[in-house]
Amino acid sequence: MLNKVIDSLRNTTPAATAEAHCDGPCGVYDPSSARIAAEASLSMTKKILALTPPSGDDSVAWANYLNKLGRYVAIKEEQTHLAKEELLVLWTDYFKPVHLEQHPDLHTLFWTAAKACSAVKVEVSLQHATELMEIVEKIHNIFWATKDRDVAWYTAS
């Protein structure tokens, strides 16, 4: 019975066909979320490298040090993973063949970005975290060029 009602509705009020060139409505994509996450990864990397273990066997000092280290590592991991997700969404959902024609190194750039995210997660390396930010900046510039807009690159820190 329900199927007959649904079929009747479909026949009397057919829906128009909708088409889109991307998975979400236009204007949803923006590389800024990848930049924020990558910048947080860089910040946590700097904080980890700046930590000084306490001397001696003061258990409270060691507990505070390990707590702080653990929090920085957890945030670095989480934010680097988020940066990777945001970059992969841009790569797979926003960029189209026409963009690849305009920027033939696009696939290599995103592959390198994904690998840079992995390197930031695996190590505590200021070099890798900085390289990730540089790649995200390149992606930012290409993204906005595809929209014929000049959006300045900036960082929060």
What does this structure look like?
The chain is mainly alpha-helical and 157 residues long. It has one domain (31-146): Up-down Bundle (Four Helix Bundle (Hemerythrin (Met), subunit A)). The protein is built from six helices and no strands. It has helices at residues 2-12, 32-50, 59-94, 97-102, 106-122, 126-146. Helix 2 (32-50) packs antiparallel against helix 3, helix 2 runs antiparallel to helix 6 (126-146) and helix 3 (59-94) runs antiparallel to helix 5 (106-122). The termini are far apart.
Descriptors:
157 residues, mainly alpha, Four Helix Bundle (Hemerythrin (Met), subunit A), 6 helices, 0% strand
Please outline the helices and strands.
Elements: H1 2-12, H2 32-50, H3 59-94, H4 97-102, H5 106-122, H6 126-146
Helix pairs in contact: 2-3, 2-6, 3-5, 5-6
CATH topology: Four Helix Bundle (Hemerythrin (Met), subunit A)
Question: What is Rg?
Answer: 23 Å
Q: Overall 3D geometry?
A: flat
Number of strands: 0
Low-confidence stretches: none
**CATH 2nd-level architecture:** Up-down Bundle
Run of helices and strands: HHHHHH
* Mean pLDDT metric: 90
Helical residue percent band: over 70%
Strand content: under 5%
TL;DR?
The protein is mostly helical. It has helices spanning 2-12, 32-50, 59-94, 97-102, 106-122, 126-146. The model has no long low-confidence stretch (mean pLDDT 90).
